[in-house]
Specification:
Layout (H helix, E strand, L loop, with lengths): L1 E4 L14 H9 L3 E5 L10 H7 L2 E3 L1 H5 L3 E3 L16 E4 L8 H9 L3 E4 L14 H18 L12 E3 L2 E3 L1 E5 L3 H13 L2 E6 L4 H8 L5 E4 L2 H8 L4 E4 L14 H5 L6 E4 L20 E4 L2 E4 L9 H28 L8 E4 L2 E2 L2 H6 L9 H4 L1
Parallel strand pairs: 1-2, 1-4, 2-3, 4-5, 5-6, 9-10, 9-12, 10-11, 12-13, 13-15
Antiparallel strand pairs: 6-16, 7-8, 14-15, 16-17
Helix pairs in contact: 1-2, 5-6
Length: 369
């Protein structure tokens, strides 16, 4: 199979979807790989390493002109012209981005496979998890940074000062993002409250993260009661394939103290905080009702070396199966089939179809293959 590896075009996105070692493994299986010039540069991989692995250095057009195109982030409008019915394997987050991307995928009859909706045998999300972990770590770090007074924050440091905890962190969501954010926040020494959905999870979190972590069941009342003295609010809510629900209303945000910080990690799926809107690494924050909002849609791109290794460790087995055996074999797995978001001009993820008002364009993969 002819595989294309384009350079990412999203703002300051330095990750790359295949490492030179991954290209080597694909070449050994008899596939060809066109690597766009400098595709791996931001992650520390030079063209010469891809050439040594057997890849062909090419233009963007040549990389996209492949049977299977592998990326990190969704195609931007400037890349829509390259969508011509090939297989596209990347993060898509279709429910949380402009509907025009989905419409372009349908019109071009692109087979769009989304990392974020692939499941394993336990129903977990193995291709989303590594980036969720990095984003969770970042949420605490970015929050702490923007609390600094020189960033217009309230001047509260998250951490212990001579044994006394400073700063309060409220985390909404107890999944991979929330747990990693809690790990970093408690490690700093802040007071941390996590709101989740499974009461029995508290014991596990106390063991794995910190006995000082306060865990409560999430509710509107619990959020409202805690926002007024929260220094850092981290939105870590995930509804696979769907738009994230707005668990924090604009009225709730208004109750936060001036200079407090919001980090909405759910922003890829539309955000779980009503006042959030997507930002970029070039312009990462905005202030609403006196509260600093950090809503960067590709947070792990800030640490591309770590992120690329973590991502490709997870995606390469799926990529090899897809390249070796094709889409029909890929779809025969109950977990992998859920990653197929569009196929033959139809939306195959019901949650995406519902979120974008495209139910009439929904069909199951089994009906199309």
């Amino acid at each position: 199979m002819k595989i294309g590896l384009p350079k990412e075009t999203k703002d300051r996105e330095n990750r790359v979807a295949i490492t030179p070692d991954g290209v080597r493994q694909l070449i050994q299986k008899g596939h060809s790989v066109n690597v766009e010039h400098d595709a791996g540069f931001g992650s520390g991989f030079n063209d010469s390493e891809y050439i040594e692995a057997g890849g062909l250095i090419s233009s963007a057009e040549e990389a996209w002109d492949s049977d299977l195109v592998v990326k990190v982030k969704e195609p931007l409008a400037s890349e829509y012209c390259f969508l011509k019915g090939q297989i596209l394997f990347t993060y898509l987050h279709l429910a949380g981005v402009d509907r025009s991307l989905t419409e372009t995928l349908l019109k071009s009859r692109t087979t769009a496979i989304a990392y974020e909706t692939a499941e394993d045998d336990q129903g977990k999300l193995p291709l989303l998890a590594p980036m969720s972990a990095i984003a969770g770590n970042m949420a605490a770090l970015m929050g702490a940074y923007y609390l600094a007074r020189f960033n217009h924050g309230k001047g509260v440091q998250l951490g212990q000062v001579l044994g006394k905890p400073q700063g309060k962190v409220l985390i909404i969501g107890d999944g991979v993002v929330g747990q990693h954010a809690a790990g970093v926040s408690t490690g700093m020494g802040a007071t941390v409250l996590m709101l989740g959905t499974v009461a029995e999870r508290a014991k596990q979190l106390h063991k794995n993260i910190s006995p000082d972590l306060n865990y409560q069941l999430s509710s509107k009342e619990a959020i409202e009661e805690n926002l007024s003295d929260t220094d850092l609010l981290i939105g870590a809510v995930l509804s696979p394939g769907k738009q994230a629900p707005h668990l924090v209303s604009e009225e709730m945000v208004k109750t936060m103290q001036s200079g407090s910080v919001v980090v909405d990690v759910s922003i890829d799926q539309g955000g779980c905080i009503e006042t959030s809107h997507p930002t970029s690494h070039s312009n990462p924050t905005f202030i609403k009702h006196g509260v600093i909002h950090y809503c960067v849609t590709n947070m792990p791109g800030a640490y591309p070396r770590t992120s690329t290794h973590a991502l490709t460790d997870a995606t390469l087995p799926y990529l090899l199966q897809l390249a070796d055996k094709g889409i029909s074999s890929f779809a025969s797995n109950n977990g992998s089939i859920k990653a197929i978001n569009t196929l033959k001009g139809y939306v195959c993820c019901y949650e995406v179809a519902e979120a974008l008002g495209l139910k009439k364009k929904f069909k199951k993969v089994s009906e199309l293959l």
